Amino acid sequence: MRNMPVALQKNPFTIIGDQKVIIDYAAIYCRTPQELLKSTLFHEILGRFIRRIEDKRTPGYLFLRERRPDMKPTDIPDFVLRLLRLLVGHSAEEIIILNPDYGSVLNKGDDREWIYELRRDLYNYWRRFERYVFLEMPHGSGQKSIDIYHDQFMTGCENLRDLVLYTNRLIGEHLSGKDPKVYRQLPAGANMGMLLERIGWKCPPFLKAFKDVPFIRITLIEPPLILYSKSNTRKGTFMEIPGPHGPITVDPGEWFCFPAKVGELTAFIFFHHDYIAQALSMANLFELAEFDDISEKTPDMVVLFGVPGDGMKEYTEFFEDRQSGIITGMVQRNADVGYFGYFKKMTLTLHNVAMLNRGRLPLHGAMMHLKLKEGGYANIAFVGDSGAGKSETLEALRAVAEEHFSDIKVIFDDMGSFAIKEDGRVHGYGTEIGAFVRLDDLHPKYAYDEVDRSIFINPDRKNARLIMPITAYHHVMKGYAVDMLFYANNYEHLGDDKPAVEFFTRADEALQVFRDGSRLAKGTTDEKGLVRTYFANPFGAHQRHTIHEKVAASIFKRMFETGVRVGQVRTRLGIPGFEQEGPKAVAMELYAILKELARRPGR
After folding, report:
1. How many Cα atoms within 13 Å fall on the side-chain side of residue 442?
2. Reduced to 3 states, what is the DSSP secondary structure of residue 110?
């Protein structure tokens, strides 16, 4: 392995609460078990572990106190540390000969079993941390150097994982005197990692505090990954304000930037390290921007996640800087906004405002390109607020895809936009390469099928979520002519006058249903019962209501003029017992309709 670059961060690691540890790999680079056990990080983790078992008065701690009554509680971490260092190089029998001082805890087989379990508990304590590793390239490395540091970054993350596993097993073998019979390759290194680089960009004065924050160039995820956050729903709306409340002051050493491609836009998503779990999870949702999207460029959007919040009336606010043109979102640093939905929806709110500025209609929904086995294709979109069943209907269509479709491409799975193109037709564009879906409403088989590449958010709680990649960026950007558009109605039962799939005959009739945005709340936000949200889109649509009305009327008029079929689907997702059957019934009905559409000339 090449020599590691000099660490550019002051602190080799940062521990947040008793849950997260962020490690500067260059500062704690270790090659051997001995170096690992001598590291400042191991010393800190061991000290925290000993304090934990002391507070809980665990059997392992009481064993140490009983066998070494002469030892002060404050001396126990050093005693255990020296013992573990000896155990990576010697068997228990050899240690007793070399240093009789440890005979009190290693003489008998039962004694060694206590130390064996103490070692296991320490290992498990380490693994319960969310572990994040970063490596920063020297400033000014540029695009040409990334291949070199790319290799170091990936090798470093693999070495850390292998070294922790090997050290733990080596100590266990020297205590038990035998090799393990079962080897479990558990993730013991980084859950997530990032290769960083400080890149010069056109930074306006109001963002000068973020000018030198490093950008993420490459990310690493070891799925399946389970993350927990204090909050599990999103509350309120994003308030538009005239401009910043004043100078934004932060410590750049506590911040990173995830540069994302959000559809055709570039977003610099700056985040305080308290929110590193949610920020890096975006790698499963948004395409990571390239060097040329950052260097000496002005981003279309900026998100500041974890600002002090001086002068802010709401947790989430945004404004459009008239001088630079940058649309900027701010989220206060607060435990209540630790839910991943705040990252995703703030970013998409800014995207929607930018689309309206460009004469496009932002849509809160899902869209896919379908090819039928019998021949022909169709591009179909759904609109609906959180919990309406748009994503679940998409997944239900996936489920029948093997039997009825030869290909299915996701264009967007939460937010997209419609634009009238040169051919006179309305085309759909996406924003994300991934999906953020409710685990509760997915078929269990589908969730398990996707487990090897997914990030699970609070899987043991209501509104459990799954973040997974589902499509390629070029599909998001290509632009597909819309054949059908549906509103996702999740609250009505089926009947003679209420079929699973219903079409409108007039643009004004369709517009009224979309404007009402009715749905039964599913617990994904703080809303309850039957609620209404303008155009099922609280993310920029109602904040820019006047321009949205104008753009929507133009797009709907053109769709009806060009033969796009506009209607609603009754997913019944809000009705207990129909979480899976409702979207499935819609999917089968749509399949029959799509077959007819595909028979049209030219399809």
Report:
1. 24
2. helix
Helix (H, G, I), strand (E, B) or coil at 200: coil
Q: Any idea what DSSP says for residue 90?
A: S
**Span 500-518, pLDDT tens digits:** 999 999 999 999 999 999 9
Q: Please state the φ and ψ torsions of residue 490, each to the nearest 5 degrees.
A: -105, 5
Low-confidence ranges of the chain (pLDDT < 70): 1-10, 140-144, 401-402, 441-450, 523-526, 597-603
- At residue 468, what is the residue type? M
Rounded Cα distance between 47 and 301, Å, is: 43
Q: Is the dihedral of CA 15, 16, 18, 20 positive or negative?
A: negative
Of the candidates 85, 60, 82, the residue with the CA atom closest to the CA atom of residue 167? 85
Tell me which H or E stretch contains 270. strand 265-272
- CA distances (Å), 376 to each of 89, 394, 445, in order? 68, 19, 29
Strands 405-412 vs 415-420: parallel, antiparallel or unpaired: unpaired
Q: Got the DSSP string for 329-362?
A: EEEE--GGG-SHHHHHHHHHHHHHHHHHHTT-EE
The closest alpha carbon to 306, from 255, 241, 373, 381, belongs to 255
Tens-place pLDDT, residues 547-588: 999 999 999 999 999 999 999 999 998 899 898 899 989 988
> What DSSP assignment string belongs to 453-466?
G-EEESTTSTT-EE
- Domain 361-433+470-598 part of CATH 3.90.228.20: yes
Task: Kindly give, in sequence order, each residue whose CB lies less than 8 Å from that of residue 324, ignoring residues fewer than 6 positions away.
Answer: 204, 298
Which sequence spans correspond to the domains of the chain? 13-176, 198-357, 361-433+470-598
Q: What CA–CA distance (Å, rounded) separates 591 from 405?
A: 9
Instruction: Region of 140 please: left (phi>0), alpha (psi -120 to 50) or beta.
Output: left
**Residue 537 token pair:** 């889109």
pLDDT given at position 260: 98
pLDDT of residue 391: 74
312: Cα separation from own chain's centroid: 26
Q: Could you tell me the two tokens for 495?
A: 């009947």
Distance of alpha carbon 302 from alpha carbon 289, whole angstroms: 13
Q: Quick one: which of 259, 263, 220 has its CA closest to 432?
A: 263
Residue 15 to residue 21: CA distance in whole angstroms: 4
> H/E/C letters for each residue in 123-163?
HHHHHCCEEEEEEECCCCCCHHHHHHHHHHHHHHHHHHHHH
What are the residue ranges of helices labelled H in 57-205? Answer: 59-67, 76-87, 92-98, 103-106, 109-127, 146-176
Which residues have C-beta within 8 Å of that of residue 414, sequence separation ≥ 6? 344, 348, 364, 365, 366, 391, 431, 432, 435, 436
The pTM of the full predicted model, rounded to 2 decimals, is: 0.90
What is the spatial distance between Cα 591 and Cα 368, in angstroms, rounded to a whole number? Answer: 13
